[in-house]
Amino acid sequence: MPRESRSKRVTAQADAIVKQMGLLCNPYFRDLVNGTMPLETFRTTQEQFFFAVTFFPRPMAALVARLPHPKQRLDILHNLVEEHGDFEESRFHHNTFQQFLRTIGSGPQALEGLRMWPAVHAFNSVLTAACALDELEVGIGCMGIIEYAFADISALIGKAVTERGWLGTEGLVHYKLHAEIDVRHAEEFFSVIEDDWDHAARRHFIEQGLQLGAYIFDRLYSDLYADAFAPRQA
Length: 234
What we know:
The chain contains eleven helices and no strands. By secondary structure, it is mostly helical. The chain has a single domain (8-227), classed as Heme oxygenase-like (Heme Oxygenase, Chain A). It is globular, with a radius of gyration of 17 Å. The termini are far apart.
């Protein structure tokens, strides 16, 4: 029997924002699905996305530190622990994503000395500011909607790369996991701020956070795709 959602209103707003923004219709996903994105471009952008994956738990930890009530911390702390493989190093998301990169032809040497592109740096910096300096509802909403969208993004990427024959389903690793767990991860964020929806002033900050998270996630993929074709300095 499906579990009753603890964050119906915030989740509904997040869903509306993701659809309104057209995040899943982003040029990156459009061309990945329609077959016009080359494997080399996908691999290059995913190598850059690794910098976002490995950074993501850090602003999450900042939110845990800022929450005043122990009960509020538990859901996000559980999320943070899962980012670290439930304390099993081989299952750290940092490591499962590297495993995925290897399956699409990116060897360990590819990440050694790789420079982070400004698009990823900007994404990580906005997350840091939202979670460490902004209103709590902004940071929580921002992180939550990224988790919410990433469930569908992971399923889309997994389907696209297997249909194009770039790897089998057994090689999906990271994306298969996130397609399964990130809706719950999103709820773990949203449930912390669900009751604040009743208060207009706090609801304003929730909506700001949701819009910010959707915006920077959409820009990350769009900018990575554009930057993949830009000449780079040695």
